[in-house]
């Protein structure tokens, strides 16, 4: 009779490979320069603990770190060229391909039936959602995803090339007190602020519109810098990019109908302001 062995499974390494690789390169350049972690940290204005974390791939290098390392270690642009990939790895893996496409889009049209979209979320609202994730996320992962989500909001004010953004949000989203009344009041104010930007349109789909073609789920429609239309669909941490011309065309027609059925920009702004006012007065959101 043969004997069986119990094999212990190695603990899962959740460090993004690009962080680990970047850290190894920094350590190599540092040692070649004859610097200890403490000396290197002092030269670039970081703590030795932070340098150690980057070298071990436990935390991502931010732009200031990379710029300081390039100067101090004479890295010749090696670290600079990795920075975009290091930043991208802060996002969930399923979202990273879309984020690359989104970063170079010239227009972005979205329908969100459940939550305020990430590009319009306040820090407190976003943190509440990340804390509610299940299975629970590690504190480090929450902080990295929060930082990455807020950094994406630079798209709202990007000028080269300019980006046109349209958001259709279900009215029910505005009545869901994510994080409590104070967080939601701030969120509604920020939503109104973003909607006032010249390149941003925020429309609310009223609950009174009992049935419409968006009820199949959320969608994001993009036009790339080379004028190629794409669609992104996300649900339960699974994201799909649709590029088939006929399918994409149907989504654009569907979205055009949604825009005509939603409240106009001014009506939407008034509704958002009224709901924020209700929260300021301590009332339940009116319907």
Provide the fold topology:
Blueprint lengths: L16 H16 L4 H8 L3 H8 L7 H11 L9 H6 L4 H11 L1 E8 L10 H9 L7 H14 L11 E7 H5 L5 H15 L4 E6 L13 E6 L4 E7 L2 E5 L2 H17 L3 H16 L7
Parallel strand pairs: 1-2, 2-3
Antiparallel strand pairs: 1-4, 4-5, 5-6
Question: Would you write up a description of this structure?
Answer:
There is one protein chain. The protein has 287 residues and is of the alpha/beta class. Helix content is 47%, strand content 14%. It is built from twelve helices and six strands. A six-stranded mixed sheet has the order 3-2-1-4-5-6, sandwiched between helices. Strand 5 and strand 6 form a beta hairpin. It is elongated. Residues 1-10 have low confidence and may be disordered.
Summary?
The chain is an alpha/beta fold and 287 residues long. The protein is 47% helix and 14% strand.
Q: Give the N-to-C terminal Cα separation.
A: 73 Å
The number of helical runs is: 12
Shape: elongated
What would the average pLDDT be, to the nearest integer? 91
CATH topology of the largest domain: Endonuclease, Chain A
Unreliably modeled segments: 1-10
Largest sheet: spatial strand order: 3-2-1-4-5-6
Number of domains: 2
What is the rounded Rg? 23 Å
Secondary-structure element order, N to C: HHHHHHEHHEHHEEEEHH
Strand content: 5-15%
> Helix amount, in percent?
40-55%
- State the name of the first-level CATH class of the largest domain: Alpha Beta
Overall strand count: 6
* Structural class category: alpha/beta
Largest sheet: 6 strands, mixed
Q: Which architecture of the largest domain does the CATH hierarchy give at level 2?
A: 2-Layer Sandwich
């Amino acid at each position: 009779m043969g004997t069986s062995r119990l094999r212990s499974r190695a603990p899962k390494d959740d460090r993004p490979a690009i962080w680990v690789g970047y850290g190894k390169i920094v350590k190599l350049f540092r040692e070649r320069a004859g610097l200890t972690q403490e000396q290197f940290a002092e030269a670039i204005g970081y703590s030795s603990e932070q340098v150690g974390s980057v070298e071990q791939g436990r935390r991502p290098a931010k732009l200031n770190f990379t710029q300081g390392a390039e100067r101090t270690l004479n890295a010749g642009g090696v670290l600079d060229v990795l920075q975009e990939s290091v930043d991208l790895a802060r996002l969930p893996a399923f979202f990273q391909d879309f984020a690359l496409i989104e970063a170079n889009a010239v227009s972005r049209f979205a329908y969100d039936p459940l939550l305020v979209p990430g590009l319009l979320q306040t820090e407190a609202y976003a943190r509440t959602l990340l804390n509610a994730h299940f299975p629970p996320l590690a504190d480090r992962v929450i902080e990295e995803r929060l930082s990455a989500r807020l950094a994406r909001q630079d798209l709202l004010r990007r000028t080269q090339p300019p980006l046109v953004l349209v958001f259709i949000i279900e009215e029910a989203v505005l009545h869901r007190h994510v994080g409590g009344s104070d967080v939601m009041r701030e969120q509604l104010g920020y939503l109104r602020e973003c909607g006032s930007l010249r390149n941003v349109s925020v429309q609310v789909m009223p609950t009174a519109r009992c049935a419409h073609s968006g009820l199949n789920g959320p969608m994001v429609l993009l036009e790339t810098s080379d004028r190629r239309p794409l669609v992104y669909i996300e649900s339960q941490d699974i994201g799909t990019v649709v590029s088939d011309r006929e399918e994409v065309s149907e989504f654009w027609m569907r979205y055009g109908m949604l825009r005509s059925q939603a409240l106009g920009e001014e009506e939407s702004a008034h509704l958002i302001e009224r709901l924020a006012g209700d929260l300021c007065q301590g009332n339940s959101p009116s319907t």
